[in-house]
Amino acid sequence: MKIGTRIRELRKKKGLTILQLATAINSDVGNISRLERNIQGYTENTLVKIAEALGVSVADLFTENAPELDEIKFIGKVPSGMVQVRGEAFLGVDGAVDMIEAHNGWLKIYSDDVDAYGLKVKGDSMWPRIQSGEYVVVEPNTAVRSGDEVFVRTIEGHNMIKIFSKTRDGDYQFTSINNSHKPITLSPDQIESMHYVSAIVKPIKYIDICEKTGRALF
What is the pLDDT of residues 27-42, one digit of tens each? Predict the structure, then answer.
C-alpha cells in the first residue's frame, strides 16, 4: 500500500476530513488531496506532522496492517521504529572510511538511542561481515565496551569502522573486522568520537525520503 493511500485510510479511521487534517498540519486541502492520491511527494517534517495529527507513529504511515486506532494503548512515548540515514561510507583499505554526509532516507529498524543514525556502506574491504550496499546503524549514546564494533573519527579527520579494545597502558587498539590488516593503536586524545555500531541492515529495510517521484513539494 502506498503511503498516500495509507494516510487516507488512517485519516478516515480518525474521523477527519481533508480540510481538518490540512488545518492541523498548517497545510492546504490541495496538498493533502494530492498526497493521498499518491501524485505528490512529502518531506520528513510533513510526515511527522501528519503522524501527530492522526495519533500514530511515523512508522505506522508505512505499515499496511497496523492496529486499529481505537485498539492502541499509549504508554509513554511510542517509538517511530525509524533510523535516519545520515550519508554514505566508502570503505577503503584497512577499514578506512570516506564519508559523504547527507540526509538520505530512513531504515525500518528500532533503536532506543534518539541520536542513532545509519550509514550506507560501499566497498568490499569489510566483506563478508559488511557487504557493499548494506547499512550500519550507529548509536552515539550507547556505551562502548572492549570487543564492540565502533565507528571512529580521529581528530585528524580520519574515519574507521573497527573492533575496539583497550591496551594495558590505556591506549585504544582498533582491529580490522576482516582480520587482514594489523591493529591500529591510538591514544584517547587522538580520538574525536567513537560510536557504537549496533546493527548491520539489509537494503530491503531502507525507505527513501520521498516517493518514486523524488519530489518534496510541501
Answer: 888 888 888 888 877 7
The neighbouring-strand residues paired with 135 are 120, 201
Which residue shows C-alpha cell 523524488? 214
How many other β-carbons are positioned within 10 Å of the β-carbon of residue 42? Answer: 22
The DSSP 8-state label assigned to residue 42 in this structure reads -
The two most distant CA atoms of the chain are separated, in Å, by 66
Closest CA to 59 of 195, 72, 23: 72
Q: How many angstroms separate the CA atoms of 187 and 45, rounded?
A: 41
At residue 212 the predicted structure's pLDDT band, cuts being 50, 70 and 90, is very low
Write out the three cell numbers for 170. 590505556
Domain ranges of the chain: 3-70, 83-205
Q: What is the mean pLDDT of residues 1-26?
A: 87
**pLDDT over threshold 50, residue 71:** no
User: What 3-state DSSP class applies to 38?
Assistant: coil
The CATH T-level fold of domain 3-70 is 434 Repressor (Amino-terminal Domain) (1.10.260)
Q: Which CATH number fits domain 83-205: 2.40.30.170, 2.10.109.10, 3.40.640.10, 2.60.40.10?
A: 2.10.109.10
Query: Three-class SS of residue 163?
Result: strand
Please report how many Cα atoms fall inside a 13 Å half-sphere around the Cα of residue 155, on the Cβ side. Answer: 6
